[in-house]
Design goal:
- By secondary structure, this protein is α+β, with helices and mostly antiparallel strands.
- The chain contains 3 helices and 10 strands; from the N terminus they run ααββββββαββββ.
- The chain has a 4-stranded antiparallel sheet with strand order 1-2-3-4, with helices on one face. Strands 5-6-9 form a 3-stranded antiparallel sheet. Strands 8-7-10 form a 3-stranded antiparallel sheet, with no helix packed on it.
- A hairpin with a 2-residue loop joins strand 7 (about 135-140) and strand 8 (about 140-145).
- The longest helix has 29 residues, at about 1-30.
Amino acid sequence: MKNKKIIPLIIKIISFIVIIIAVIITFRICDTVNVNNNESLISYIEKKENSSNIEIKKKKSYGDLCFLLYTKNNNSYKLIILNRDNIFKNRYCLFGSSGSSFKTDPVEIYIFPQNNYNLVVVFGNNSKLHASKYKIVNNDKILYDENLNVNQYILGIYKIKSYDTFSNKVEFFDTEGDRVF
């Protein structure tokens, strides 16, 4: 007699657990995106950022992070950061962005602290600067020296040791070696 009452209860509990797991998985899939599918990625960004008419200009990954530089109406730009999902390793969720407004300055610098290092993200629109290279300098020491195409968007991700005091010095130069920003 007891078994007849326990078995339906066990079935109900197992069914409830399966439904909860299905809801969680569905939510995770709906709240993440495959960064290798540009159409889905654009749709995801438009939804998350409440924006439209966006175009992805640059995309770079670093560890579990994916950095995207995109424009709205091919004008101002914005950086968005996605974090790899813990369960679905090929999917990413929104982690943060360069702010609530679109950027109009030629370039921006974003320092992203990690446990033992900092990520320095340099991003922007080089068609306004016409720089041929930029250097990341810390205490008069050149850490990175990057060549550029004059009319391209910039998205560079650099690892800086956390014990270095970073001076936020990123210098842009034209083809003659003159500093332009």
